[in-house]
User: What shape does this take?
Amino acid sequence: MVVERRRLELASAETRQSILRRTVDLEHGALILRSSMPHPGLGRRGQDAADNSLLKAEKLVEIPYIADENADEDPDVTVTLKNDGSIGKRLKEAFLAKGKAFVLEQVRVFVVAMAKGGSTKEELRARCSRRRSNASRSRLAEKLVRACEEWGCFRLINHGVSEKLMSETKAVTRSFLDLPLEIKMRNPSPVEGKGYIPLNYATPVFEGMGIFESASPGAVDDFCNQLGASPHQREIMFKYSQALYDLAQDLGAKLLEGMGLHGDLFNGWSCQLRLNKYHNTPQSVGQTGAVMHSDPGFLTILQDDEIIGGLEAVSRNTGELVPVDPMPGTLMVNIGDIAKVWSNGRFCNVKHRVQCYEAKIRTSIALFVLGPRDTKVETRHELVDSEHPNLYIPFDFEEYRTLRITTRAPTGGALELFRATNF
Ligand SMILES: O=C(O)CCC(=O)C(=O)O
Assistant: This one.
């Protein structure tokens, strides 16, 4: 059986490690790295007229004669590209490193099947699509883990929360934060950071409200009662907190999968929804809206302002502060202190802050997945071995949260108090 030349179209992304444009596509399992650097032949952000950031190139892959008797060999393939510039060269290298094995495997499967009399077209198509969906699911899980390790933050696209619900929730958030002070004060703050925080000396441009245990029955209703919310506002807040909670559970499952672990993550954990408003004025431009911190919990799913930037994250590799540009319709994920403990130091509890870039109100909504309510925070035992001794002793999440405040250690320094001494 002779397999003829095949024409393949491969896509490659700009690989500049730019947090500005780092996205994880939850639906299609693709990690898209978008560059904000101009690229020859492309627009300002490496995008084409249709706003696509992926670079496509047409290739010709020539495969030598393959028959059932030599289907197990590793033949040389020739790759010819129309674009033989630097992008073409990288595509070619990427194909030879990753794509070749895949293509040859498909060819082998085909050859073996044909030697046995052949599969029907439908069988082949069904098998292909099953394999593609399994492979892309686990590739996505691995990419999520890598993003947690390398940056501790990433943007999600195709996350399943509708743009309509996102923008309705933003509108409700803005209307809540525009309420008179005496009404906002009804959102109590028994513990720092859990309820309403008015503008104050320490945070002169920041004000925020909170729904503690937002996934517990009645929590959203109680919050809405405090503010005298309308049925519409109530419905939106309820739907959004549910949608984000479900997304968090999904992320937890994918992180487990990416780490090769079983069980469940985040089931029965405390969550908190926060509504944030930054009163940016001409006088505050250049000042800090939210001081440098890491998030205390495992992860935060953030709907940042769709227009006004200001969020900045610290690169784990270089220590540089990198602006995180708004990207409407996406959700930002920040990995927190508890994830660092859980992963035995593998995940990065990203340090971040919010700066005032321009004199316009900035609004954001954050779902914090905090920590287990009834059990201790501890490292997954599968991630501990003689080469990776356990870095932390088990502790209560609330105890840790209090220590972070009392020791004034907003960037995770209080974790040192729970360091194991076994190394
Ligand atoms: O408002 C933002 O974009 C970020 C808020 C934040 O850092 C946080 O809630 O931890």
The chain has eight helices and 15 strands. The longest strand covers residues 362-372. The helical segments are 86-115, 121-150, 163-177, 181-184, 219-227, 231-259, 337-342, 397-406.
